[in-house]
Task: inverse folding
């Protein structure tokens, strides 16, 4: 398993501002991802955070709005830029691990960062 | 593209009883993984149970078991001896064999366990 710490846990932001969320993992991991959970909704993958290169974004998400950094195998940041009330969501960092038998398929999640944009 | 459907937005059960949550999925892949995740009010996503598609035997984890019907693309979760701590949102999720972390989640089912 992996222990994933996210900061901030929650924040209230003003429209038009940007906020950076940090994700720290207690071990080196190859696969790291950022998901969004809008109020009362399911989780949607924003992007794959690639160590040492640009993140890979899913359809509907762009780098200008959600820039991601991943300087090493234990840390990543997600910035939500020029926020609007529609960005009010829980943002979750997740990692995938390889077991002794190879890739297990499962993800471990941080506790999430709840952003409210006024 | 894969889709995951949970047709029960809300379910309730009395403590100590058994409840089954439904999930169906659609995929053209032959090798994949299926999961049930639990999200209590604390927001922490917790893996409840995992099933590899190539395994015919249904996965079991203590009070939690699945009924995996590959041909029907159905993956239901049975919770036996329900406890108050089981109250949470439950998500069914799919991962293709080569998608490496790209989980597709269902809409979720809110389960409430009543004393």
Result:
């Amino acid at each position: 398993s992996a222990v994933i710490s996210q900061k901030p846990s929650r924040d209230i932001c003003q429209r038009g501002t940007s906020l950076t969320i940090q994700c720290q993992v207690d071990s080196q991991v190859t696969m790291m991802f950022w998901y969004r959970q809008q109020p009362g909704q399911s989780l949607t993958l924003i992007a794959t955070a690639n160590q040492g290169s640009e993140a890979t974004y899913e359809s509907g998400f762009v780098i200008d709005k959600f820039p991601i950094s991943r300087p090493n195998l234990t840390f990543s940041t997600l910035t939500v830029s020029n926020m609007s009330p529609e960005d009010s969501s829980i943002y979750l960092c997740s990692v995938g691990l390889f077991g002794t038998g190879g890739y297990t398929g499962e993800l471990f999640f941080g506790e999430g960062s709840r952003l409210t944009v006024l | 593209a894969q889709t995951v459907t949970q047709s029960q937005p809300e379910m309730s059960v009395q403590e100590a009883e058994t409840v089954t949550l439904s999930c169906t999925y659609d995929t053209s892949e032959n090798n994949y993984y299926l999961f049930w995740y639990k999200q209590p009010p604390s927001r922490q996503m917790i893996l409840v149970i995992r099933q590899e598609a190539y395994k015919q035997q249904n996965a079991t984890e203590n009070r939690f078991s699945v009924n995996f019907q590959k041909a029907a693309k159905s993956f239901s979760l049975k919770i036996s001896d329900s406890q108050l701590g089981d109250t949470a949102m439950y998500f069914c999720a799919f991962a293709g064999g080569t998608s490496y972390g790209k989980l597709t989640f269902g809409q979720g089912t809110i389960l409430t366990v009543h004393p």
User: Anything to note?
Assistant: Chain B touches chain A at residues 33, 35, 42-45, 47, 50, 52, 91, 95, 100-103, 105-108 (CB under 8 Å). Residues 59 and 66 of chain B are 6 Å apart (CA to CA). Chain B has a mean pLDDT of 92. The first strand of chain B starts at residue 3 and ends at 5.
